[in-house]
Fold these 2 entries.
Entry 1:
Amino acid sequence: MTAAGSVADGVPAHDVAHRMAEAAGAWLDGLDAEQRRIAVGAAPGDDPSDAERRRWFYTPTDHGGLTFHAQQPAQQRAAMRLVATGLSTPGYVTVATIIGLENVLDQVEGFVTRFDRERGRDPGLYYLRVFGEPGGSGVWGWRFGGHHVSLNNLVVDGALVATTPCFLGADPATSPLLGGAVNRPLARVEDLARDLVRSLPPELATRAVLLPKAPPDLVTANRTVVSPGDRVVPLAGIWRDERFPDAGEQAKLQALSDAIDEAAGYEDADHAAVEYTAEPRGVPASELDAEQRGMLRALLGTYLERVPPEVSPVRRYDDEAALDAVHVAWAGPTTPGAPHYYRVQGPRLLVEWDNTQRGANHAHSVWRDPGSDFGLDVLARHRAAHHG
């Protein structure tokens, strides 16, 4: 990778793309005609035909594609084999754990949540779709998503060129295991950032902490393109359909959305203080000491090492100048267990974390490349080269 989220045209990018194509082809070959109709989308392109591939969600809504429910066990295994090609081993374990948390969340809520379907918290409602024809020198990609998971991959000329947006969440973020152990799938994603901010001397901490209270969710939400001025989108707005057919269920969702916003207590000035800006807010790594820079590199690894090691851009930040340009910003208390938000931003890099909902036991994290999410810049260059 030459930059976070954008992959160089090298051997590793081709090797990973080859594994993806092989797994995608095997999965599609095992589907019947009706399943394939749902599982295959339009080939990626630099035009409106690519609109569906660019839609992504992290709520328990229809993410688009073939669900586990619609597949037989062997097909489900083939689907997970494809998912695994886009992840490191720790990334795959984390995704599998997040899917399993749907059963835990259902129990937490009393097995009653329904939304617009028979079961609202459902580990069978994860969606896989392939866009275009896998393999060869053409343009193709795939998307896997469901509640708290969104993986987006694009292959151009036989090389993996984009792996963002990449979203992982956890609800509950913390839950008990036998013997006093604790299940925290995203523990290091949270703790490393807090430890870093708490380690700052007062003059840097004052600049790093944008506000004493956290926004109710990720600031950039599930937008296709990140733009200056972006602000939090209320929960009810992060669903495929504008409204549920069932008015009662829609009212429940709206009430939940309103309660989340009310708990945050954000006014217009607060939103302005944390809105997305092209110029990063917070403290640059150039002002951190060696130990803090080490913590920041480790934190970046919890995002950039979600993908296969051959294509992870994490090594980019071994370069001191590249790390210098990365900024860290925080909102909310730094006390463990308190609602909080952070952002890490630099050239071709944006990561966001929010753990505020359900008493700060409901975490969201996303890795984005504002310049090349979904490989949009690569597709534009590809079209100019081949169709200009």
Entry 2:
Amino acid sequence: MKSTPKGMRLHIGLFGRRNVGKSSLLNALTRQNVSIVSNVAGTTTDAVEKPMEMLPIGPVLFIDTAGIDDVGALGEMRVQKTRQVFDRTDIGLIVAEAGLWADFEEAIFSELQQRHIPVVVVFNKCDIAQPAAEHLARFSEDGVPCVATTAETGEGVLDLREALIRTVPDEFINPPTILGDLVPSGELAVLVVPIDMEAPKGRLILPQVQSIRDILDNDAYCMVVKERELRDALDRLKRPPALVVTDSQAFLKVAADTPEDVPMTSFSILFARFKGDLGEYVRGTMAIENLMPGDRVLIAESCSHHPIGEDIGRVKIPRWLQQYVGGKLEFAHTQGHDFPEDLATYKLVINCGSCMWNRREVLSRIMHCQQAGVPCSNYGLTIAYSLGIFERALRPFPSAEEIYREMAPEISSTGL
């Protein structure tokens, strides 16, 4: 892994009308011709992404969106793609022409504030006009950074960079740990990494690599084995490991070979906590008890790989769920940033481990499910529940285990 993955970068979205200079501003910020610039409104037809290192922030991802005042059938498609960017934006830049702030800009501002996304307001084209005094006073009073720029000449771009640095969310400056709090300094974690048809040739998948780095960052150490060698590896240790972490697909064998007094979980469950809301995922997973043959289930994958024979999302999870439910379920699949608006038609939404999404997008999807009244889970939790080892997989996480124990009697008493 030679560069920071997108899911670990600070996502900065540029929003505004067509032809206000969003693309010019992005080119000035990155000092590269990332986006095509033209006097013709609507030149940017889809979100343009530019990863870069922005010191002292670190790795960021700028997202230049199509103007969301677009019109026509094609325009509506562009607008829909732009709206998806809200779901993964950590900082929103609202770009407006100097002297112009109307209902359109106010609607974007309101959307970002409702989502608790930090905002920086940029009045561009200040060589033509100046920001209105009442607008500057309003944003100053609200504590919203406001910058005047002329993107084509670079005027005000340094001020914008400083405003971005001051606006970075605390959770990006002090990111959560993947498993550093579960494996104390000087202790050992055993990572079980199956090498099968889905394993990328010559490398490990992203959650495995990130977990290894997180262990080293927290002054612990790890042993990496395949599932067939786990029992022998544990027998060779002088003392038990602090934690065993497995790929969810090998849950049953790893659970059988790991002593009961050794905590065990999966990479996917670790990432449910790291990228999302583990407690909410636990609540959603237990809705599996409510599933009945014929119900619709949505499986959402963050990456767009080509499915192969025993694909986890298209073959294994559907098989295990249908065995648990005792009948056929209707499965739908989405990939990448696509997410259906008709969530209410599903009885359960299952996200993948989400290593390619940033945390904001995962939390946004959970929020959309909550608004639609649809339970939401992820791969590892769904697999553990379907295979009957849910409580054991939650044991390393006391608060999540407590949610399960509180809900389990209710499920039993209702007969669900």
